[in-house]
Amino acid sequence: MLLMSKQYRYRVVDVFTQVPLEGNALAVFPDAAGLDSGSMQKIARELNLSETTFVVPATRADCAAGVRIFTPMQEMAFAGHPTIGTCFVLREEGIVPAETLGFLLEEKVGPISIRIDPGPRPLIWLRTPPISEGRTFDRALCAQALGLSASDLLPATPQLLTAGNPTIFIALRDKAAVDRAWVDSHGCAALKAGDSEPLCVFVFTPTPEGAYSRMFAPDHGVAEDPATGSSTGPLAAFMLKHGLLSRAAGTRLVSEQGTKMKRPSKLHVELIGEGGRDGIAVGGYVAPLAEATMRF
Predict the structure, then answer these.
(1) Do β-strands 51-56 and 65-70 pair in parallel, antiparallel, or remain unpaired?
(2) Spatial contact of 199 and 234, defined as CB atoms under 8 Å apart
(3) Does the residue 1 lie in any domain?
(4) Is residue 2 part of a domain?
(5) Is residue 95 domain-shared with residue 188, that is, in the same domain?
(6) Which domain holds residue 209?
(7) Which helix H or strand E contains 159, and what residues bound it?
(8) What is the rounded distance in angstroms from the CA atom of residue 267 to the CA atom of residue 227?
(9) How far, in Å, CA of 171 to CA of 253, rounded?
(10) pTM, 2 dp
């Protein structure tokens, strides 16, 4: 008996860059209505990118589309580069008209507000969901987990912040320390001290433009992420709290991430209102790379 296979078209884009083969790669399935959660997870594991997104019908009338986000290991409530990359594909596919410069996407964390700065290559902004603070961490323990000495850390106490993706932020003295840092699953487990919730570990040093950053997520099956939009809003909040933002950056700053792993990414940040009191937006460019069809 001949079994009929189904086929699903997908796009691959590089996010937080204008240059193909840089930034953070993302696979987007623009019509995933026929896929169940288990199949989505298997596809994400097969493609083995930081994240894969699946566009589904929104359950809310005020949202242009629903988006489900998967790492190779699990579904995410919210993630930045998948949100921005998916918006690019939605506009290219005509699901969101190109002239629409503001809309909502439905994600597990809730509606995400999107804004487009038009141009030959649009700059796509997301409004970071509400940021909450968690527990603080011992500086010596953080240094040990990262393979660094305590003197490599700035005085700011490492802390957990989340806008839907719990992340430990650790401020380091310079770019050399950021480049030397590394955390594996054992180091992450030491930091978590028995907590079961998956965590990301974000290290950075302040720069005149904003920050030089790296992010490790072994709990999510991602050894290092080239660009982490969901953590960049909380990064700005952490830097504001500890007085680490350069005055030269003003209300617009840039986090440079992925450089060490040869996937340079530029994550734009906008502080809305005085000191970001009205919110934090994260923006990025997107470079289209490939189109393909998956059959199974």
Answers:
(1) antiparallel
(2) no
(3) no
(4) no
(5) no
(6) 132-277
(7) strand 159-162
(8) 7
(9) 17
(10) 0.93
- Identify whether the C-beta of residue 142 lies closer than 8 Å to the C-beta of residue 170: yes
- Token pair, residue 199, equals 């965590």
Q: Is beta strand 132-136 parallel, antiparallel or unpaired with respect to 159-162?
A: antiparallel
User: Are both 148 and 61 inside the same structural domain?
Assistant: no
Token pair, residue 232, equals: 């960049």
Q: What is the pLDDT of residues 231-288, one digit of tens each?
A: 999 999 999 999 999 876 778 999 999 999 999 999 999 999 888 888 999 999 999 9
**Which token pair is 137?**
């961490």
Overall residue count recorded for the chain in this entry: 296
Q: Do residue 204 and residue 173 come from a single domain?
A: yes
Residue 79 lies in a domain: yes
pLDDT one-digit tens code per residue, 89-135: 999 999 999 999 999 999 999 999 999 998 888 999 999 999 999 99
* CA–CA dist 25, 226 (Å, integer): 9
Q: What's the chain's Rg over C-alpha atoms? A: 19
Q: Which helix H or strand E contains 286, and what residues bound it?
A: strand 286-295
Q: How far out from the chain centre does Cα 205 lie?
A: 18
Q: Give the angle subtended at the CA of 46 by the CAs of 164 and 10, to the nearest 5°.
A: 80
Regarding whether 140 and 161 lie in a shared domain, the answer is yes
- Same-domain pairing of 122 and 136: no
What's 161-215 look like in SS3?
EECCCCEEEEEECCHHHHHHCCCCHHHHHHHHCCCCCCCEEEEEEECCCEEEEEE
The 10s digit of each residue's pLDDT in 174-231 is: 999 999 999 988 888 888 876 778 889 999 999 999 999 999 999 888 899 999 999 9
Q: Are strands 123-127 and 110-117 parallel, antiparallel or unpaired?
A: antiparallel
8 Å CB contact between 13 and 2: no
